[in-house]
Amino acid sequence: SAEEQQQWFDFALDIAKRAGLVIKDGFEKTKTIEMKDNPRDLVTDTDKAVEALVIGEISKTFPDHKFIGEESTAAGAKCELTDSPTWIIDPVDGTMNFVHSFPYTCISLAVWCEQQPCVAVVHNPILDLTYTARKDHGAFLNGKKLSVSLKDDLSQSLVMTELWCRPDPAKMAVATANAMKVIKKCHGPRCMGSAALNMCHVAQGAAEVYYEIGIHAWDTAAASLIVREAGGVVMDMTGGPYDLMNRRVLCAANLKLAQQMVELLEVYDEDRD
Ligand code: IPD
């Protein structure tokens, strides 16, 4: 119900701000870094502390809600989306940036219900940027309504992607070949290091396109709603529907741009979340 959605939203915003203080504190200190699957997949004490804080607080208030969290999944929890209200959490998106004190990092928090996103918060506590959205109620940055860029020609567009590549030669070949094609056709390419913030930049009209192979559900769960509520499109890189678990995403200010990207991009199948 609308009342429930508002309650979840208020809670999400409050806990994201509290988590932001933990991230900001960690950002200014020496980081304790561990490697996950490969040398570019990192986790810090802050990622773990933030996820524990967020899940702990949410389960006190909403004991029957479910969770999908980056660090819980890394620790062996099942990554499963049912019809029940599910909080999808990336405690620190842009962990590599966080580790290097590059201030493009955030917490991403979404509530999905009946397999649809209904509440989203992406909060960068270092630069004090808070992106929010509720289903059918628009998207906002620090309370100001967002709308996507009006450009619809790739040659006039900023295109964001990440060349953060798992050291899998087949995947790297596809990602770099795609990037070379895009570089030739777009106005400018950007690789900033946080999938969630990249999507929010499409929502705010600062970039026209973002795509990536290899992302996870927690990277896009919140920002996909923010992009759509700002008037943009979110889909699979094949042009098919956006699938939270399929490890690929394409966001664009409009369908015309998305179609130009679909024609250009080759896809690569990762194992699903
Ligand atoms: C990563 C970042 C990065 C993207 C990766 C993500 P994490 O998230 O968003 O920009 O290239 O695909 O997994 O690990 O920092 O939460």
Automatic annotation (TrEMBL):
Main enzyme class: hydrolase
Claim: Metal-binding is one of the keywords in the record: yes
GO MF assignments: inositol monophosphate 1-phosphatase activity; metal ion binding
UniProt entry keywords in alphabetical sequence: Hydrolase, Magnesium, Metal-binding
InterPro entries tied to this protein: IMPase (IPR033942), Inositol_monoP_metal-BS (IPR020583), Inositol_monoPase_Li-sen (IPR020552), Inositol_monophosphatase-like (IPR000760), Inositol_monophosphatase_CS (IPR020550)
GO annotation (BP), single: signal transduction
Reaction catalysis annotation: a myo-inositol phosphate + H2O = myo-inositol + phosphate
Listed EC numbers: 3.1.3.25
Pathway: Polyol metabolism; myo-inositol biosynthesis; myo-inositol from D-glucose 6-phosphate: step 2/2
Binding site for Mg(2+) 2: D219
A Pfam family: Inositol_P
Keyword Hydrolase attached: yes
Classification via Gene3D superfamilies: 3.40.190.80, Fructose-1,6-Bisphosphatase, subunit A, domain 1 (3.30.540.10)
Protein family according to the UniProt entry: Belongs to the inositol monophosphatase superfamily.
Name of the molecule in the record: Inositol-1-monophosphatase
Species name: Hyalella azteca (Amphipod)
Gene of this entry: LOC108680824
